Amino acid sequence: MAKTINAELLAVLRKxxxxxxxxxxxxxxxxxxxxxxxxxxxxxxxxxxxxxFVLYDAxxxxxxxxxxxxxxxxxxxxxxxxVRNPLEDTMKAYGVPHLGKEVYLLVKADxxxxxxHELVRRYPEFSRSTIQKYIKSGAVQVNKVVVTSxxxxxxxxxxxxLTPPSRLDTSDxxxxxxxxxxxxxxxxxxxxxxxxxxxVLNDEFTVADFFRRYTTHAxxxxxxxxxxxxxxxxxxxxxxARNDATAALLKKQFADRTTKKxxxxxxxxxxxxxxxxxxxxxxxxxxxxxxxxxxSKGKPxxxxxxxxxxxxxxxxxxxxxxxxxxxxxxxxxxxxxxxxHGDRVYxxxxxxxxxxxxxxxxxxxxxxxxxxxxxxPVPSEFEGIVRDAV
Length: 390
Fold this sequence. Notes:
- The structure is a single chain.
- The protein is an alpha+beta fold.
- It folds into 4 domains: 2-108, Phosphorylase Kinase, domain 1 (2-Layer Sandwich); 112-162, RNA-binding S4 domain (Structural Genomics Hypothetical 15.5 Kd Protein In mrcA-pckA Intergenic Region, Chain A); 171-252, Pseudouridine synthase; 257-390, 2-Layer Sandwich (Pseudouridine synthase), CATH 3.30.2350.
- It is 18% helix and 31% strand.
- It has helices at 2-15, 64-72, 115-122, 128-136, 207-211, 244-256, 328-335, 380-385; strands spanning 28-33, 40-47, 50-57, 80-82, 96-98, 101-108, 112-114, 140-142, 145-146, 153-155, 160-162, 177-180, 184-189, 235-241, 260-268, 275-279, 282-284, 292-294, 302-310, 314-321, 357-366, 370-375.
- Strands 12, 13, 14, 15, 16, 19, 20, 21 and 22 form a 9-stranded mixed beta sheet that branches.
- A hairpin with a 3-residue loop joins β19 (302-310) and β20.
């Protein structure tokens, strides 16, 4: 069937003197046949990187307006023009007899669009942001040449090839499971592990990759099972949802602030007060958009802390955030001149790269209606680093 239609279209191109005797049928690509009507038949295809339409029509009478109207029955937004009949001895301007029918050849207007826009049109299963990441990673070819700019202009007739990178194999990676049932999974996240990747492209193991084995929630995203997050450098308790209903329940509790979170940290120096509540709004730092700062125009943020012990240089503290702003604990402790030990962003990075912040416990309600507290032991280095405290 494919050979038959290719041969038919090649014969039409030859009649319009756009193809020669040496033109091969495989040079005609992207063939699309539209539903046949009572008096007309429409086919589109690509030839020499140009999009053409062939219209078999018994009623147009070589009237260009009628021909265009009949094409637009199937392609409402069609913009283009008819190819003239090249035969000198015919009285007709456009139609050419072919196989006992009148055939018209139309060429679509050669418009250009951004590469990312055209790929979204061709691959609607991907979002534009995902498409842009694929382009920048070198996963897209235009006419067999790799293009890495989403703004690159292409024609609809250009040959585009998208080869999404294969998913990183993390089947041999494990995380310590604290609790597991039919609805939730709770793990002790090590420091240095991302909660989830920022997009579809990911070259490292994340908590979300681990949760993917245990959940049906958000499997088509980079955040399967994820309902809250911990910073890469923070260790400790993180809970995941194993189904959509549980995800909705858990997310609502985090949004409504009905969860209770307790962190253990080592901070530089000694806070002036042994215990206090820090009630200071936090906003993004415009000078460094990936970081945050105390800002009167920011979002409300509330943290209570208590010093467990201190040796004057370092202090072991317990932190209880009442809100869940990004980098909240790190920003608040920096503001009171007691940055978290090893904080490479808000304090001073250590040679071992460790941030001394640990999500020690999480109290939350899980299905069916059980209030649970999950705990991850405080890393031994937290205790050891201030063991000589007085």
